[in-house]
């Protein structure tokens, strides 16, 4: 099926559709050996597309939900030789990438895809995609602390967006709290730093939900394909 060139470039993860249009207009894109500067140009999977002299891959789009174990890097490679998320997908022909990241010692739900356009949209802060974490925290988290989490905290000099916070369980003898935290930002070590700002250390962290998706039926290290309805639902979240 023929599609507009800028859409194919965006789907391949080259750049956003608007940025792809700029590349075309600047004469940086070739189709079957010819420079193309017309935005209405349509291409198919049989066409060879070069951007700045590099071929782009128009492989079939794939979408997976992965239960990332602790001790795994959210990347396609690691210069220290540590295990990475793509090690679990060696049987999958498509070249998958994680949507965002989970810390090395954080487990839970991670989306894997080769749909660069959808991945970039899901990570964009303006769409406010909910991410639900359960944190095992050292200390007895108080109601006032939950209130501060809900209002937003200053982390690395910038206030976090309002969150949803719920105390799930406490072990007063061991001084351990289990807290569910829902955020839509994706700042570096954000959940851990939010608790640190309150004086608590996170001993264990797991992402249990992403948007409307959860880990039902999966154990650590497992993955499954997203259904067509789930892919459609994610795309609808980031429309407009």
UniProtKB/TrEMBL annotation:
One of its GO terms (biological process) is enzyme-directed rRNA pseudouridine synthesis. It comes from the Bacteria. The keyword Isomerase applies. Signal peptide: none annotated. The keyword Transferase does not apply. SMART domains: S4. Keywords: Isomerase, RNA-binding. Pfam families: PseudoU_synth_2 (PF00849), S4 (PF01479). GO terms for molecular function: RNA binding; rRNA pseudouridine synthase activity. Residues 3-60 form the RNA-binding S4 domain. Its EC number is 5.4.99.-. It is an enzyme of class 5 (isomerase). PROSITE patterns: PSI_RSU (PS01149), S4 (PS50889). GO terms for cellular component: cytosol. Belongs to the pseudouridine synthase RsuA family. This is Pseudouridine synthase. It comes from Ligilactobacillus agilis DSM 20509.
């Amino acid at each position: 099926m023929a599609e507009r060139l800028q859409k194919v470039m965006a789907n391949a993860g080259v750049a956003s559709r608007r940025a792809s249009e700029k590349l075309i207009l600047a004469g940086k894109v070739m189709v079957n050996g010819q420079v193309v500067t017309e935005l209405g140009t349509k291409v198919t999977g049989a066409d060879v597309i070069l951007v700045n002299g590099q071929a782009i891959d128009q492989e079939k789009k794939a979408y997976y939900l992965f239960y990332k174990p602790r001790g795994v890097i959210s990347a396609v490679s690691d210069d220290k030789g540590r295990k990475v998320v793509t090690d679990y997908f060696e049987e999958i022909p498509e070249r998958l990438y994680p949507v965002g990241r989970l810390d090395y010692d954080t487990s839970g739900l991670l989306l894997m895809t080769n749909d660069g356009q959808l991945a970039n949209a899901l990570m964009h802060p303006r769409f406010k995609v909910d991410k639900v974490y359960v944190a095992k925290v050292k200390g007895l988290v108080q109601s006032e602390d939950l209130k501060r989490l809900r209002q937003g905290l200053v982390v690395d000099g910038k206030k976090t967006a309002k969150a949803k916070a719920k105390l799930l369980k406490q072990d007063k003898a061991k001084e351990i709290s289990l807290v569910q935290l829902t955020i839509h930002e994706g700042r570096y070590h954000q959940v851990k730093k939010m608790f640190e700002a309150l004086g608590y250390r996170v001993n264990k962290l797991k992402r249990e939900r992403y948007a409307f998706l959860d880990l039902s039926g999966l154990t650590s290290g497992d993955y499954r394909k997203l259904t067509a309805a789930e892919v459609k639902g994610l795309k609808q979240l980031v429309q407009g």
